[in-house]
Each structure stands twice: as C-alpha cells, then as structure tokens.
Amino acid sequence: MEDTFVKLWDLLRSAPDKRVVLANFPFTTLILPGRGEAQPFDAGVMVTPLTGRLAKMSPSDWKKFLDGLALEGFELVQSEWHHEKFEQAPGRAAESLVSVVLHVMVPASERRLILKGKLAVSWAMGKNEDGYHVPDRIELKDARILERTGQPVFQVQLEEGPFSTIQPILLYDLDGEGVLEIVLAGGNTELRKQDDRYVQTRMCAE
C-alpha cells in the first residue's frame, strides 16, 4: 500500500502541472480540517494550525477545490510523502498513516506556504486496474501551515558543480576576526562575509 503514495510522489516530481496529478488521485472520501488562529513565528513566518471545522469532500469536490486554488495563483512547488505506519485488525479495513509536506507558492505575491501533517488512510479492498491499492477514506490530521510573504530568507551565494570538485568544505576563522570563512578547498575558493552577504575569492593563484 506504500506503493500508492510512492507512485503519487513520483508523478508529482515529473509532472509539469502537479494540480492534475493531485486531482486524479483516486479515493472515495477526503476529510480536510479548516484553519485555526494564526500565530506569529520568527522571520515573518505565521503558523496556522488546521484545527477548524472539518470539510468532507468527494473526488469531484476535491477537483473543484484544487481548481479554486489554481485560480488564486497557488502552485505546488514540491512535496514529500512518507508511509509511517500500517495496521490491519481482523475484520477491519487496512489503515495507514502517511506524513505529508507540501511546499506551495503564489508567485505573483511572493507568498510561500508549507503544509505539514499526517494522512490517516483507510484502504478499499482490492486493487485498481493499474495494480495499486486505492484509499477509501483519507483524513488530514495534526496539520499546520507555515506562511511567509516576501523574498526567500536564504539566498544563493555560489553555484559550483559537480560537488566533488569543491569538497572538502571547511569553516574556519582565517583572519581571527571572529567571523567564519567558508573554504571550498577542492575549488580553490574562499567565501568571506562582507556586510550581509558572502563574497567569493580565489585562495591561490592558478
């Protein structure tokens, strides 16, 4: 049954339109909790627990929900799906617990969101025509959304590759000023902090 979510993850990685993949994921019933009260966190991040009223969705409801998000500019950037637990008690449907992380962005407003939660999955009997087990009921639990608007907190300072040409990577205060320099020994490169960014220099003449 883990294969079902592994397949979903693989399809999402390669799909140009991830919304279509999510919309076509088979199930009978989906339960999503509403938003709770947002709380401020560090670096302008707001954390919202999903503790509100539960919404019960059919596959057609789910597709309409995704279409609405797309119209508002939401785009799925990347995702993670990990099958954590499986149980099957005698006389009952098999159940799984799947952890999920969704990285979402609204490019027009530089709005970034991360949804983290658990999917409680009850499985239908048998497999579909593609040979995969199909969820009967899926409920999102223990979920929260981290949200921030603006440029990413972390900025790309250097792009080098392949990795084998720059390692080892060393951190050391070369000049004794109390600030660590970043040394890419294999690439003959030093990153020295100046103000709020790192500046790249060559360590030795070539």
Low-confidence stretches: none
Average pLDDT taken over every residue = 89
Structural class: alpha+beta
In angstroms, what separates the terminal alpha carbons?
A: 56 Å
Compute the gyration radius: what is it?
Answer: 23 Å
Helical content stands at 10-25%
Strand content is over 45%
CA-based shape: elongated
**What does the oligomeric state look like here?**
single chain
- What string gives the helices and strands in order? HHEEEEHEEEEEEEE
Q: Total helix count?
A: 3
- Note the main sheet: 8 strands, mixed
Task: Outline the secondary-structure elements.
Blueprint: H1 2-14, H2 18-23, E1 29-33, E2 39-40, E3 46-49, E4 54-57, H3 59-71, E5 75-87, E6 95-106, E7 111-127, E8 133-149, E9 169-172, E10 181-184, E11 189-194, E12 197-202
Parallel strand pairs: 1-8
Antiparallel strand pairs: 1-4, 2-3, 3-8, 5-6, 6-7, 7-8, 9-10, 10-11, 11-12
Q: Can you characterise this structure?
A:
By secondary structure, the chain is of the alpha+beta class. Helix content is 16%, strand content 46%. It is built from three helices and twelve strands; from the N terminus they run ααββββαββββββββ. It has helices spanning 2-14, 18-23, 59-71; strands spanning 29-33, 39-40, 46-49, 54-57, 75-87, 95-106, 111-127, 133-149, 169-172, 181-184, 189-194, 197-202. Strands 1, 2, 3, 4, 5, 6, 7 and 8 form an eight-stranded mixed beta sheet that branches. β11 and β12 form a beta hairpin. The protein is elongated, with a radius of gyration of 23 Å.
